[in-house]
Every structure is written in C-alpha cells, then in structure tokens.
Amino acid sequence: MTTSDPVHDADSATEEVGVPALLRGKPVVPGAVTAPVTWVTARPALPGPDATVPEDRRDAEFAAFTAAVDAVADRLSGRAETVDGHARQVLEATVAIARDRAWAKKVKKSVAGGQAADYAVRQATDDFVAMFVKAGGVMADRVTDLRDVRDRVIAELHGEPEPGVPVVDAPHVLFADDLAPADTATLDPSLIVAVVTEKGGATSHTAIIARQLNIPCVVAVGADLRAIPADTPVLVDASAGTVETGVPADEAQRRVAEAADRAARISSWTGPCATADGHRVQLLANVQDGATARQAAASVAEGVGLFRTELCFLSETSEPSVEDQAARYAEVFAAFPEGKVVVRTLDAGSDKPVPFVNAEDEENPALGVRGLRIARGNQELLERQLDGIALALSQTERRGPDAQAWVMAPMVATVHEAAWFAELCHARGLTAGAMIEVPAAALLAEKMMRHLDFVSIGTNDLTQYTMAADRLSASLAYLTDPWQPAVLRLVHTTCRAGSAAKTAVGVCGEAAADPLLACVLTGLGVTSLSAATPALAAVGTQLGEVDFVTCRDMAAAALDADGAEEARIAAAAVIGL
User: Are both 458 and 569 inside the same structural domain?
Assistant: First the structure.
C-alpha cells in the first residue's frame, strides 16, 4: 500500500496543459527508472498548548512519553542492526537524540507543570533547535534529526503511523520535501527505486546514503514537485537531474533500458581512467579509515585522494598518541601499497567538531578556527599528527612512484600558511600539499605552488565560500552547486597555475563524483579525481567516451554560462545530451 498526503492531491500541471511536465533538480546518483510516485508519510500535526494535565495524572503522562521514546528508539535501533557504514551511524545518532537526557529532562519539567506530553515534546525540541541553529555548523545540521525524533515521538503518543518512508509492496519512486537521515538510512533499493526531493543538496545525508545504496537520486527540484500526486507514473532520469510525467510507457521503458545498458557498461568498467584519446586522469577514492580504504582497494580506485583523518577521532575525548595515530593511518597505507594515498590533516571545526581540539564556541564556525588555523595556536598538535603519518609510512611496505606519503592541509588561505605547512612536512620527508577551498588560495595558487608539491581542490567548501552560502542549508542548495561558473573559474585559475608550475592539481569534493562535471574538470586541467568509491566507475566510463579536446570544449561552454543550470546544459550539449 502507499500513503498519500492531501497536499499532493491536486491535478498536476501536466494534465492541465496536456504535455509532459519536466522538472529539473540536482543529479546525485545516476540512473533512470519509471515507476509510480509514493510520498513520505505525513508528519503529525504539531499540538498546541491548550491541554492541561491534572496533577494526579502527570506521572502517567510522563510515563507515556518515556514509553513512546522507548518504542521509537527501539525501532530505530533494530533498523541500525540491519545496515552498516554511514547508514548505521546515522541511525545510531538518531537513537542517541531520542534518548538524550537533557531533552527528556525538559519534557519532564514541562509535564510536571501541567503541560501535555505531546506539547512538552514540541516545546523542548523548539528550545534545542534554537540552540543548535545558534551554534551553527554540525549542530545546525542536526536540526532535521531533532525534528524527526520529535515527530516520531508525537506520532507514537497519538497512536498514528510512524512518519517517513511508507510501506510499499512494489517498486515506487519516493518523493519528499526532504528526507530525515533516519528515513534515508532504511531505504530498500528493491522497492524504493529512486529518490526525488524538493530540497536538499549534493552533500546532504540523503545524497550520501543514496550513493552508498546506489539508488538513483535527484535533489533540490523545487516546490513544483508538490504538483505531482501519489501514484502518478514518472520517469526519473537521475543522470540528467530530470523528473517527467506523461511520458508514454514505451518511450519510458526505452529510456530506462538505455540507462540499464549504460549501468552494465559502468559495472564492467575496470580502468585505468583515461579519455578516449588516452589522456590519463588518476581516479582515486575518498576514505575515512582502514575499512573504507580496503573497500576502495577492491574497486577501480587507483589510490586514495582524500583520507579524512578527523573522522577517525570524532568520538575521542583526548588526543591519541603518535603511536595510536600511526596504527590507524598504517591501515590506509597498507590498503594501497603501490598507490597514491593523500592524507588530509585534521579538518576539525565547523561541521566536524573534534572534542580534544575545538573548545570554544564561535559565532560563525564555518568562517572560524578550523582546519590548519587550529595549529596557529597549537602547532604541537599538528606536528604530532605529521609524526604519526611519518611513523605509519615507515611501518608499512610502500612501492612505486606514488609510494611516498602525500599530506595536505585544509583551509589554507595565505602563501605564508602554505610555506609554513610545507616546511613542517618536508622536515619529515613528507610530500606537502594544500587544499584549495578558500577563494584566496585559488587566486594565490601560483605563489603557493612555489612551496607545495601538489594541491587538491575541495569543491564543497570552495563553492560555499565563493557563493557566500552555507553548504548545509537546504534553502541555499541552488547556490552551493559546483557547476556555478564562478567556482569553475577559480578551478580554472588553479589549474593554469598548476600547469605553469608542473604541479599536480586534484579535485576531492563531491564535484568529482559527477560524471559530466568530471569531463569539465578534466578539460580545465585537473589531473586527478577523488570521490566516493561507488561513484568512480561511472566517472571513468564517461571520461572514456570522450576525447580530451571535447573535455576542453565542455569546460569552455561551462565557463561561459550565466549560471549553474546553464553550465550543465551547455556542457551536456557538447556531447549531444
């Protein structure tokens, strides 16, 4: 069965004008499917403050709250046991929110004052939401999780169906304004064959887990998505980022078959990555620990283009010793004994607070003391990490031209910072690099490269800072798009500097996972692409179908565009898409 929402029951624009509707969003995971729509189950109506609980029933009222919390947490815990990786982490984090003692304490105080449990839940959540929004960064990103837990508990108190992904018994395309992390983490790819959201961005939980599950996904379609009611057959082309209604069944099946053929070619692609005329591009993986590095090594990845070391330590309350750090780094080195491994030093701060590093609250953490800036007041922390990387390198067998340890610093903004970091690396025999994610670094790339051995462009943050738009904001997803011509021009500036200095220029942001954009980046002069492991084969397949001159033509078309959508369309038109 499917569950519809009355807000989506209006006739679609397609029926009014008699032609197929075409909606565009951000493509996240490629693929084409045709199936009827199912909308996420409606969230419960939020209660008002009208009800007052008599004093002799307040203990029972709070007991009802704790029972509802237990039911919600137990369901989420059960689902966590059935998944792994990022999906499991998301579910476990949501369980932790549901069982948060401070939240329960606020609810208990309100109930003791006579409020009904459901309104007490709403009020306590609103208080925490305000606190998290003010904190910014990763805390602000958890607002969706807080509201999700609130709605699940209120629905349980009211005896209503759990909000979120509905139960279906046949393949459907899931539509939503946005998905809570706990919803996305439990998707069944055999029944939810595509995900389309009104909001969201390429770096959201929805996008990350959709990539992990390899479910075709389009985000940031906009409010017009609401005009398509439940059970409407749609054709989702997640490679192009389109959603169509009214497509004749035979045409829809033909296009799905073409996508399936392409998926088969992708699944059989084994590398190495090169354009049709032999221009080589290194294809690397983003990893966070030894386990994900070993998964990458079993794929088409030639090495690691981004080892996010801070993700090894998010739960640590004190700094690990040099030896402990080395043991963790060595696992990643060992996975690629002959391949490049690019280690990023601690990118703590903003949306990735590390307890033993980030102590002070900041008004705007995304523009605060994060990445390399932390070492300005604690150089020993950075030096111990570099010692750990050097020790790990000495403890693992490494062979071949890429066997040295490539180490890069995040949030480099000045030539002096680049020179300082390079000196610390070179003193330990490490290959020194920098992340190009601050616009100033792109503009000064030529001067920085006099000190550095390589650079890697972090398109997520470079886009955020170029467009002055928080990359965690669903409302600003239209700005935080790496197809923005302003961002591409900064990439081009960096690549030209790299070419002049004979310095390798990689990309390790989400842009590298977009097969079409990968062609543009190659045309701009990028020499390596690093992305989530499941995305690599599609990138390699696409690059193998075009020659380098075509990549340069695609890049020129995108650079000349007026906006992100126009840039994508112009680049696609070069190859007839």
Answer: yes
How many domains does the chain fold into? 3
The verdict on whether 158 is a catalytic residue reads: no
Pairing mode of beta strands 242-245, 233-237 = antiparallel
User: What's the rounded Cα separation, in Å, for the pair 37 and 261?
Assistant: 24
Active-site residue, selected from the candidate residues 205, 279, 451, 492:
205
DSSP-assigned letter for residue 115: B
Burial class (CB in 10 A: 0-12, 13-18, 19+), 478: middle
Q: Establish if 51 belongs to a structural domain.
A: no
Structure tokens at 433: 């690099």
Q: pLDDT tens across 123-150, in order?
A: 999 998 888 776 655 566 677 788 889 9
Same domain, 82 and 100: yes
Does the N-terminal peptide bond of residue 272 adopt cis geometry, omega within 30 degrees of 0? yes
Which of the 8 DSSP states describes residue 276?
T
CA dihedral sign of residues 369, 370, 376, 381 = positive
Supply the CATH number for residue 37's domain. 3.50.30.10
Tens-digit pLDDT profile for residues 259-294: 899 889 998 999 999 999 999 999 999 998 999 999
Among the options 217, 508, 519, 551, which is catalytic? 508
Active site residue 8: no
Could you list the residue range(s) of the whole structural domain that residue 381 is in?
278-574
Closest CA to 474 of 65, 140, 156: 140
Judge if 191 and 139 occupy the same domain: no
Question: What's the one-letter identity of residue 89?
Answer: Q
Predicted pLDDT at 40: 87
Residue 235 sits at φ, ψ, to 5 deg, of -115, 115
Give dist(CA 86, CA 92) in Å, integer: 10
- Among the candidates 142, 158, 174, a domain finishes at 158
Q: How many angstroms from the chain centroid is the CA of residue 107?
A: 33
Asked whether residue 329 is domain-assigned, the answer is yes
Q: Can you point out the beta strands (E) in 341-430?
A: 341-344, 406-409
Asked if pLDDT for residue 351 goes beyond 60, the answer is no
| Closest listed residue to residue 343, CA positions, set 432, 235, 441 | 432
Q: What is the DSSP letter of 282?
A: E
